[in-house]
Amino acid sequence: MSVNLTVFEAFHVIEGLKIGYCNAGIKQTQRQDLVVIELANTATTAGIFTQNAFCAAPVQICKEHLEQAHTQYLIINTGNANAGTGKAGFDDAMNICQTLADFKGVDVKSVLPFSTGVIGERLPLEKIISSIPDALSNLSEGHWFEGSRGIMTTDTQPKGVSTQFKYKGETISISGISKGAGMIKPNMATMLGFIATDALVSKETLQEICSELGEKSFNRITIDGDTSTNDSCMLMATGTCKLPELNNRSDEFYEVLKAELEKVFIYLAQAIVRDGEGATKFVSIDVNKCENTNEALRVAYTVAHSPLVKTALFASDANWGRILAAVGRSGVKNIVLEDIQIFLDDVCIVENGARASSYTEEAGASVMSQQELSIRIDMGRGNASETVWTTDLSHEYVTINAEYRT
Questions:
Q1: Which residues face 162 on adjacent strands?
Q2: Among residues 224, 245, 243, 220, which one has the least CA distance to residue 233?
Q3: Looking at the annotation, which residues are catalytic?
Q4: Any idea what the CATH number is for the domain that residue 106 is in?
Q5: Domain finish residue from 251, 274, 297
Q6: Residue 255 CB partners (closer than 8 Å, separation 6+)
Q7: Strands across the sheet with 341-344, in order?
Q8: Domain enclosing residue 354, as ranges
Q9: Judging by beta carbons within 10 Å of its beta carbon (0-12, 13-18, 19+), is residue 56 exposed, middle or buried?
Q10: Per residue in 32-57, pLDDT tens?
Protein backbone atom coordinates (compact mmCIF):
# COMPACT_ATOMS: atom_id res chain seq x y z
CA MET A 1 0.00 0.00 0.00
CA SER A 2 1.35 3.38 -0.98
CA VAL A 3 -0.30 5.45 1.75
CA ASN A 4 2.25 7.30 3.88
CA LEU A 5 1.78 5.62 7.24
CA THR A 6 2.96 6.90 10.58
CA VAL A 7 4.33 4.72 13.35
CA PHE A 8 1.30 2.77 14.56
CA GLU A 9 1.20 4.21 18.07
CA ALA A 10 1.64 7.76 16.74
CA PHE A 11 -1.80 8.44 15.31
CA HIS A 12 -2.59 11.87 14.00
CA VAL A 13 -5.04 13.60 16.30
CA ILE A 14 -8.47 14.19 14.79
CA GLU A 15 -9.58 17.43 16.36
CA GLY A 16 -13.15 17.06 17.60
CA LEU A 17 -12.86 13.34 18.44
CA LYS A 18 -11.85 11.89 21.80
CA ILE A 19 -11.46 8.28 22.90
CA GLY A 20 -11.80 6.89 26.40
CA TYR A 21 -11.30 3.33 27.59
CA CYS A 22 -11.22 1.00 30.58
CA ASN A 23 -11.36 -2.66 31.57
CA ALA A 24 -14.89 -3.65 32.61
CA GLY A 25 -13.97 -7.31 33.14
CA ILE A 26 -16.53 -8.47 30.57
CA LYS A 27 -14.63 -11.62 29.61
CA GLN A 28 -11.05 -10.95 30.70
CA THR A 29 -9.11 -8.58 32.93
CA GLN A 30 -5.83 -8.31 31.01
CA ARG A 31 -6.66 -5.32 28.80
CA GLN A 32 -9.31 -2.71 28.10
CA ASP A 33 -12.64 -4.02 26.81
CA LEU A 34 -14.86 -0.93 26.91
CA VAL A 35 -14.23 2.04 24.61
CA VAL A 36 -16.10 5.33 24.26
CA ILE A 37 -15.75 7.78 21.37
CA GLU A 38 -16.91 11.37 21.87
CA LEU A 39 -17.63 13.59 18.84
CA ALA A 40 -17.78 17.37 18.53
CA ASN A 41 -21.09 19.03 17.71
CA THR A 42 -19.75 19.79 14.23
CA ALA A 43 -19.28 16.09 13.43
CA THR A 44 -21.28 13.96 11.03
CA THR A 45 -21.44 10.17 11.14
CA ALA A 46 -22.16 7.45 8.57
CA GLY A 47 -22.16 3.68 8.80
CA ILE A 48 -22.57 0.35 7.07
CA PHE A 49 -23.72 -2.78 8.85
CA THR A 50 -24.05 -6.55 8.65
CA GLN A 51 -26.71 -7.99 6.36
CA ASN A 52 -27.12 -11.04 8.60
CA ALA A 53 -30.85 -11.45 9.38
CA PHE A 54 -29.94 -12.18 13.02
CA CYS A 55 -28.22 -8.81 13.36
CA ALA A 56 -27.35 -8.05 16.97
CA ALA A 57 -29.33 -5.71 19.20
CA PRO A 58 -26.66 -2.97 19.12
CA VAL A 59 -26.71 -3.03 15.31
CA GLN A 60 -30.48 -2.56 15.29
CA ILE A 61 -30.24 0.35 17.70
CA CYS A 62 -27.26 1.85 15.90
CA LYS A 63 -29.11 1.97 12.59
CA GLU A 64 -32.16 3.56 14.21
CA HIS A 65 -30.23 6.16 16.18
CA LEU A 66 -28.04 7.05 13.22
CA GLU A 67 -31.12 7.97 11.20
CA GLN A 68 -32.96 9.75 13.99
CA ALA A 69 -30.40 11.95 15.71
CA HIS A 70 -27.04 13.72 15.60
CA THR A 71 -24.42 11.27 16.87
CA GLN A 72 -22.32 12.47 19.82
CA TYR A 73 -21.09 9.23 21.43
CA LEU A 74 -20.15 5.71 20.38
CA ILE A 75 -19.70 2.97 23.00
CA ILE A 76 -18.04 -0.35 22.16
CA ASN A 77 -17.73 -3.46 24.30
CA THR A 78 -15.82 -6.65 23.52
CA GLY A 79 -16.17 -10.13 24.99
CA ASN A 80 -19.91 -10.37 24.32
CA ALA A 81 -21.77 -9.79 21.04
CA ASN A 82 -25.24 -9.28 22.56
CA ALA A 83 -26.59 -11.17 19.54
CA GLY A 84 -29.30 -13.81 19.59
CA THR A 85 -30.51 -12.34 22.87
CA GLY A 86 -33.98 -11.14 21.81
CA LYS A 87 -35.81 -8.28 23.51
CA ALA A 88 -33.71 -8.66 26.65
CA GLY A 89 -30.56 -7.96 24.63
CA PHE A 90 -32.21 -4.95 22.99
CA ASP A 91 -33.19 -3.58 26.41
CA ASP A 92 -29.65 -4.16 27.72
CA ALA A 93 -28.11 -2.19 24.85
CA MET A 94 -30.62 0.62 25.32
CA ASN A 95 -29.87 0.64 29.05
CA ILE A 96 -26.18 1.20 28.26
CA CYS A 97 -27.01 4.01 25.83
CA GLN A 98 -29.32 5.66 28.38
CA THR A 99 -26.71 5.44 31.14
CA LEU A 100 -24.10 7.14 28.97
CA ALA A 101 -26.63 9.71 27.76
CA ASP A 102 -27.69 10.57 31.31
CA PHE A 103 -24.09 10.83 32.46
CA LYS A 104 -23.25 13.31 29.67
CA GLY A 105 -26.62 15.06 29.50
CA VAL A 106 -27.43 14.18 25.89
CA ASP A 107 -30.33 12.55 24.04
CA VAL A 108 -30.18 8.74 24.20
CA LYS A 109 -30.56 8.63 20.41
CA SER A 110 -27.25 10.46 20.07
CA VAL A 111 -25.48 7.35 21.46
CA LEU A 112 -24.51 4.46 19.16
CA PRO A 113 -23.76 1.05 20.78
CA PHE A 114 -21.44 -1.65 19.41
CA SER A 115 -20.70 -5.13 20.77
CA THR A 116 -18.44 -7.97 19.65
CA GLY A 117 -17.68 -11.38 21.11
CA VAL A 118 -19.64 -14.51 21.98
CA ILE A 119 -23.13 -14.85 20.46
CA GLY A 120 -26.19 -15.90 22.49
CA GLU A 121 -25.22 -14.69 25.96
CA ARG A 122 -26.63 -11.72 27.88
CA LEU A 123 -24.32 -8.80 28.49
CA PRO A 124 -22.86 -8.49 32.01
CA LEU A 125 -24.86 -5.30 32.27
CA GLU A 126 -23.81 -4.15 35.72
CA LYS A 127 -20.13 -4.51 34.87
CA ILE A 128 -20.52 -2.33 31.79
CA ILE A 129 -22.77 0.30 33.35
CA SER A 130 -20.56 0.68 36.41
CA SER A 131 -17.49 1.07 34.15
CA ILE A 132 -18.86 3.81 31.89
CA PRO A 133 -17.62 6.62 34.19
CA ASP A 134 -14.13 5.11 34.09
CA ALA A 135 -14.10 5.09 30.29
CA LEU A 136 -15.33 8.68 30.19
CA SER A 137 -12.80 9.86 32.77
CA ASN A 138 -9.83 9.57 30.39
CA LEU A 139 -11.33 10.88 27.14
CA SER A 140 -8.48 12.17 25.00
CA GLU A 141 -7.76 12.99 21.36
CA GLY A 142 -4.58 10.94 21.72
CA HIS A 143 -6.07 7.57 22.66
CA TRP A 144 -6.34 5.94 19.23
CA PHE A 145 -3.85 3.18 20.07
CA GLU A 146 -5.60 2.38 23.35
CA GLY A 147 -8.90 2.33 21.50
CA SER A 148 -7.52 -0.11 18.93
CA ARG A 149 -6.56 -2.50 21.74
CA GLY A 150 -9.89 -2.04 23.45
CA ILE A 151 -11.93 -3.36 20.51
CA MET A 152 -9.91 -6.59 20.04
CA THR A 153 -11.34 -10.09 20.58
CA THR A 154 -9.40 -13.00 19.02
CA ASP A 155 -7.16 -10.50 17.22
CA THR A 156 -3.48 -11.14 17.89
CA GLN A 157 -2.62 -7.49 17.42
CA PRO A 158 -4.33 -4.10 17.25
CA LYS A 159 -5.03 -2.67 13.80
CA GLY A 160 -4.79 0.98 12.92
CA VAL A 161 -3.55 3.50 10.41
CA SER A 162 -3.13 7.27 10.33
CA THR A 163 -2.28 9.61 7.48
CA GLN A 164 -2.42 13.24 6.36
CA PHE A 165 -2.69 15.04 3.03
CA LYS A 166 -2.84 18.63 1.86
CA TYR A 167 -5.58 20.32 -0.16
CA LYS A 168 -5.59 24.01 -1.04
CA GLY A 169 -3.07 24.74 1.66
CA GLU A 170 -4.96 22.93 4.42
CA THR A 171 -3.78 19.71 6.10
CA ILE A 172 -6.48 17.05 6.43
CA SER A 173 -5.98 14.14 8.83
CA ILE A 174 -7.44 10.64 8.71
CA SER A 175 -7.11 8.00 11.44
CA GLY A 176 -8.79 4.64 11.76
CA ILE A 177 -8.89 1.38 13.71
CA SER A 178 -10.46 -1.99 13.00
CA LYS A 179 -10.87 -5.37 14.65
CA GLY A 180 -11.56 -8.81 13.28
CA ALA A 181 -9.83 -12.14 12.80
CA GLY A 182 -12.56 -14.75 12.35
CA MET A 183 -16.21 -14.99 11.26
CA ILE A 184 -15.20 -12.74 8.39
CA LYS A 185 -17.16 -12.66 5.16
CA PRO A 186 -18.69 -9.84 3.14
CA ASN A 187 -22.15 -8.38 3.82
CA MET A 188 -20.27 -7.18 5.83
CA ALA A 189 -16.95 -8.69 6.28
CA THR A 190 -16.87 -10.49 13.04
CA MET A 191 -15.44 -7.00 12.28
CA LEU A 192 -15.67 -3.46 13.50
CA GLY A 193 -14.15 -0.40 11.89
CA PHE A 194 -13.99 3.21 13.10
CA ILE A 195 -12.49 5.76 10.72
CA ALA A 196 -12.42 9.52 11.18
CA THR A 197 -11.31 12.65 9.36
CA ASP A 198 -11.35 16.28 10.39
CA ALA A 199 -12.90 17.31 7.05
CA LEU A 200 -16.32 18.97 7.05
CA VAL A 201 -18.73 16.68 5.17
CA SER A 202 -22.52 16.59 5.01
CA LYS A 203 -24.13 13.49 6.47
CA GLU A 204 -25.59 12.42 3.13
CA THR A 205 -22.28 12.78 1.32
CA LEU A 206 -20.41 11.01 4.11
CA GLN A 207 -22.84 8.07 3.92
CA GLU A 208 -22.33 7.89 0.16
CA ILE A 209 -18.55 7.73 0.60
CA CYS A 210 -18.78 5.18 3.42
CA SER A 211 -21.03 2.86 1.41
CA GLU A 212 -18.87 3.03 -1.72
CA LEU A 213 -15.59 2.49 0.12
CA GLY A 214 -16.98 -0.28 2.31
CA GLU A 215 -17.90 -2.17 -0.82
CA LYS A 216 -14.33 -1.89 -2.12
CA SER A 217 -12.66 -2.88 1.15
CA PHE A 218 -14.47 -4.56 4.03
CA ASN A 219 -16.82 -6.23 1.54
CA ARG A 220 -13.88 -7.72 -0.35
CA ILE A 221 -12.33 -9.71 2.49
CA THR A 222 -13.16 -13.22 3.62
CA ILE A 223 -11.50 -15.56 6.07
CA ASP A 224 -14.01 -18.32 6.65
CA GLY A 225 -17.20 -17.44 4.75
CA ASP A 226 -19.20 -16.69 7.91
CA THR A 227 -21.09 -13.38 7.93
CA SER A 228 -21.20 -12.04 11.49
CA THR A 229 -24.23 -10.76 13.37
CA ASN A 230 -22.40 -7.62 14.54
CA ASP A 231 -20.36 -6.19 11.66
CA SER A 232 -20.27 -2.40 11.63
CA CYS A 233 -18.04 0.19 10.00
CA MET A 234 -18.39 3.83 10.95
CA LEU A 235 -17.02 6.86 9.14
CA MET A 236 -16.91 10.11 11.09
CA ALA A 237 -16.09 13.63 9.89
CA THR A 238 -15.53 16.10 12.73
CA GLY A 239 -15.67 19.21 10.55
CA THR A 240 -12.88 20.99 12.41
CA CYS A 241 -10.62 21.77 9.45
CA LYS A 242 -10.99 25.14 7.70
CA LEU A 243 -12.21 23.88 4.32
CA PRO A 244 -15.83 24.52 3.24
CA GLU A 245 -18.39 21.76 3.73
CA LEU A 246 -18.28 18.97 1.19
CA ASN A 247 -21.88 18.27 0.16
CA ASN A 248 -21.72 17.39 -3.52
CA ARG A 249 -19.87 14.66 -5.37
CA SER A 250 -19.22 17.10 -8.23
CA ASP A 251 -16.95 19.09 -5.88
CA GLU A 252 -13.27 18.54 -6.75
CA PHE A 253 -12.53 17.75 -3.10
CA TYR A 254 -14.96 14.80 -3.19
CA GLU A 255 -12.68 12.59 -5.29
CA VAL A 256 -9.57 13.78 -3.44
CA LEU A 257 -10.99 12.93 -0.01
CA LYS A 258 -12.52 9.66 -1.20
CA ALA A 259 -9.21 8.52 -2.69
CA GLU A 260 -7.37 9.18 0.57
CA LEU A 261 -10.07 7.49 2.61
CA GLU A 262 -10.04 4.50 0.27
CA LYS A 263 -6.40 3.82 1.13
CA VAL A 264 -7.29 3.75 4.82
CA PHE A 265 -10.37 1.55 4.30
CA ILE A 266 -8.36 -0.98 2.27
CA TYR A 267 -5.43 -0.96 4.70
CA LEU A 268 -7.70 -1.70 7.66
CA ALA A 269 -9.61 -4.38 5.74
CA GLN A 270 -6.41 -6.11 4.66
CA ALA A 271 -5.08 -5.89 8.23
CA ILE A 272 -8.02 -8.06 9.31
CA VAL A 273 -7.09 -10.69 6.72
CA ARG A 274 -3.42 -10.60 7.69
CA ASP A 275 -4.46 -11.29 11.28
CA GLY A 276 -6.96 -14.00 10.34
CA GLU A 277 -7.42 -16.69 12.95
CA GLY A 278 -4.57 -19.16 12.48
CA ALA A 279 -3.64 -17.62 9.12
CA THR A 280 -0.17 -18.19 7.67
CA LYS A 281 -0.85 -16.81 4.18
CA PHE A 282 -2.24 -13.55 2.75
CA VAL A 283 -3.83 -14.34 -0.60
CA SER A 284 -5.14 -11.99 -3.29
CA ILE A 285 -7.63 -13.62 -5.64
CA ASP A 286 -7.77 -11.55 -8.82
CA VAL A 287 -10.51 -12.45 -11.30
CA ASN A 288 -10.30 -10.70 -14.67
CA LYS A 289 -11.95 -10.66 -18.09
CA CYS A 290 -15.46 -11.36 -16.84
CA GLU A 291 -18.77 -10.21 -18.29
CA ASN A 292 -19.70 -8.26 -15.13
CA THR A 293 -18.75 -7.61 -11.51
CA ASN A 294 -21.13 -10.19 -10.06
CA GLU A 295 -19.58 -12.90 -12.24
CA ALA A 296 -16.07 -11.95 -11.15
CA LEU A 297 -17.06 -11.97 -7.47
CA ARG A 298 -18.84 -15.32 -7.83
CA VAL A 299 -15.64 -16.90 -9.11
CA ALA A 300 -13.43 -15.16 -6.55
CA TYR A 301 -15.53 -16.15 -3.55
CA THR A 302 -15.94 -19.75 -4.72
CA VAL A 303 -12.15 -20.10 -4.78
CA ALA A 304 -11.66 -18.13 -1.56
CA HIS A 305 -14.19 -20.20 0.39
CA SER A 306 -13.06 -23.61 -0.84
CA PRO A 307 -11.75 -25.60 2.15
CA LEU A 308 -9.68 -27.68 -0.28
CA VAL A 309 -8.02 -24.63 -1.80
CA LYS A 310 -7.47 -23.07 1.63
CA THR A 311 -5.90 -26.21 3.12
CA ALA A 312 -3.67 -26.59 0.05
CA LEU A 313 -2.50 -23.02 0.66
CA PHE A 314 -1.71 -23.88 4.28
CA ALA A 315 0.29 -26.92 3.18
CA SER A 316 2.06 -24.92 0.42
CA ASP A 317 0.78 -27.67 -1.87
CA ALA A 318 0.50 -26.58 -5.52
CA ASN A 319 -2.63 -28.69 -6.01
CA TRP A 320 -3.83 -26.62 -8.96
CA GLY A 321 -6.71 -29.00 -9.66
CA ARG A 322 -8.52 -27.69 -6.59
CA ILE A 323 -8.46 -24.15 -7.98
CA LEU A 324 -9.62 -25.33 -11.41
CA ALA A 325 -12.48 -27.30 -9.81
CA ALA A 326 -13.61 -24.28 -7.76
CA VAL A 327 -13.74 -22.09 -10.87
CA GLY A 328 -15.74 -24.78 -12.64
CA ARG A 329 -18.38 -24.97 -9.90
CA SER A 330 -18.71 -21.21 -9.42
CA GLY A 331 -22.04 -21.16 -11.25
CA VAL A 332 -20.91 -18.96 -14.14
CA LYS A 333 -22.96 -19.94 -17.20
CA ASN A 334 -21.57 -20.95 -20.59
CA ILE A 335 -17.92 -21.09 -19.55
CA VAL A 336 -15.53 -21.76 -22.43
CA LEU A 337 -12.81 -23.80 -20.75
CA GLU A 338 -10.23 -23.11 -23.46
CA ASP A 339 -10.50 -19.36 -22.80
CA ILE A 340 -9.59 -19.59 -19.11
CA GLN A 341 -6.10 -19.03 -17.75
CA ILE A 342 -5.16 -19.50 -14.09
CA PHE A 343 -1.92 -18.21 -12.53
CA LEU A 344 -0.10 -18.48 -9.23
CA ASP A 345 1.56 -15.06 -9.22
CA ASP A 346 3.08 -15.07 -12.73
CA VAL A 347 3.24 -18.85 -13.05
CA CYS A 348 0.59 -20.07 -15.50
CA ILE A 349 -0.94 -23.29 -14.19
CA VAL A 350 -4.00 -23.71 -16.46
CA GLU A 351 -4.65 -22.83 -20.12
CA ASN A 352 -6.53 -24.36 -23.05
CA GLY A 353 -8.68 -26.39 -20.66
CA ALA A 354 -5.76 -28.26 -19.07
CA ARG A 355 -2.48 -27.87 -17.20
CA ALA A 356 -0.30 -25.25 -18.88
CA SER A 357 2.43 -26.79 -20.99
CA SER A 358 5.02 -24.53 -19.36
CA TYR A 359 3.99 -25.39 -15.80
CA THR A 360 6.30 -27.26 -13.45
CA GLU A 361 5.52 -28.52 -9.97
CA GLU A 362 8.64 -26.78 -8.66
CA ALA A 363 7.47 -23.38 -9.94
CA GLY A 364 4.01 -23.82 -8.44
CA ALA A 365 5.35 -25.03 -5.11
CA SER A 366 7.72 -22.07 -4.93
CA VAL A 367 4.83 -19.60 -5.17
CA MET A 368 2.64 -21.55 -2.75
CA SER A 369 5.38 -21.48 -0.13
CA GLN A 370 5.30 -17.67 0.01
CA GLN A 371 3.56 -15.85 2.86
CA GLU A 372 1.91 -13.55 0.31
CA LEU A 373 0.73 -14.70 -3.10
CA SER A 374 -1.92 -14.14 -5.72
CA ILE A 375 -4.25 -16.47 -7.56
CA ARG A 376 -5.13 -14.83 -10.87
CA ILE A 377 -7.99 -16.12 -12.97
CA ASP A 378 -8.61 -14.74 -16.46
CA MET A 379 -12.04 -15.88 -17.67
CA GLY A 380 -11.70 -14.58 -21.24
CA ARG A 381 -15.29 -13.29 -21.37
CA GLY A 382 -15.24 -9.49 -20.98
CA ASN A 383 -13.65 -6.52 -19.22
CA ALA A 384 -14.88 -6.76 -15.62
CA SER A 385 -12.36 -7.45 -12.84
CA GLU A 386 -12.57 -7.88 -9.06
CA THR A 387 -10.16 -8.71 -6.24
CA VAL A 388 -10.92 -10.54 -3.00
CA TRP A 389 -8.44 -10.97 -0.14
CA THR A 390 -8.38 -14.14 1.92
CA THR A 391 -6.22 -16.55 3.95
CA ASP A 392 -5.34 -20.20 4.21
CA LEU A 393 -7.07 -22.58 6.65
CA SER A 394 -4.82 -23.98 9.36
CA HIS A 395 -4.94 -26.33 12.34
CA GLU A 396 -4.78 -23.23 14.54
CA TYR A 397 -8.04 -21.87 13.06
CA VAL A 398 -9.84 -25.04 14.17
CA THR A 399 -8.25 -24.86 17.63
CA ILE A 400 -9.16 -21.19 18.16
CA ASN A 401 -12.79 -21.69 17.20
CA ALA A 402 -13.19 -25.02 18.96
CA GLU A 403 -12.01 -23.46 22.21
CA TYR A 404 -13.55 -20.00 21.74
CA ARG A 405 -16.02 -20.26 24.65
CA THR A 406 -13.69 -22.08 27.08
A1: 175
A2: 220
A3: 190
A4: 3.60.70.12
A5: 274
A6: none
A7: 354-355, 347-351, 341-344, 372-378, 282-290, 384-391
A8: 282-402
A9: buried
A10: 999 999 999 999 999 998 877 778 89
